[in-house]
Specification:
seven-stranded mixed beta sheet, 7 strands, globular, alpha/beta, about 45% helix, about 160 residues
Length: about 160
């Protein structure tokens, strides 16, 4: 059985909701085991034991969150040259455009030798004031549906051996 690892970090709940929705979509594919782990608790052994990945994090100051970056840094050397060609996708919770975080994550995934299988899913919260940025987020049904679809697509691709 193939395993999809979903690694997330969230400060205000948006990326957590995105990851949860992706799990719901992925679990519909019964031939794939789905693991959901917070970035702070995910290690190289978790990464190495998975067949595909979905990374969900917030954009902070045009970059991915520090906690997600720390996960990548901590796992890089133990995983180097051992993940070549494995599929991944990314979800970014963004107050503005999210493209900086998506580019940063893509560069890291390239260094890990992962293969992108979907465009980054960027969910905009449009939080621009200090109060709105720090507030707990509630994503819309449409935003969560897109996350469910991405999770389902990744799991289906793993199950069929497409990637």
């Amino acid at each position: 059985m193939k395993t999809l690892l979903i690694v997330w970090h969230s400060r205000t709940g948006a990326a957590w909701q995105m990851a949860g929705a992706a799990v719901a979509g992925a679990e519909a594919e019964r031939e794939v085991a789905v693991r959901l782990l917070p970035a702070a608790e995910t290690g190289a052994a978790d990464v190495l034991s998975a067949d595909g990945y979905l990374f969900a994090c917030p954009e902070n100051l045009a970059s991915m969150s520090g906690e997600m970056k720390e996960f990548f840094d901590r796992s890089y050397y133990p995983c180097l040259e051992r993940l070549n060609g494995r599929p991944y996708a990314a979800m970014i919770a963004a107050g503005s455009d999210g493209t900086g975080a998506a580019r940063q994550l893509a560069r890291i995934a390239t260094g890990w030798r992962l293969k992108p299988v979907a465009e980054p899913l960027i969910v905009g919260t449009h939080a621009q004031t200090p109060q709105a940025i720090l507030a707990a987020k509630t994503l819309s049904a449409a935003q969560l549906a897109a996350c469910r679809q991405l999770g389902a697509a990744l799991a289906a691709g793993l199950a069929m051996g497409v990637f």
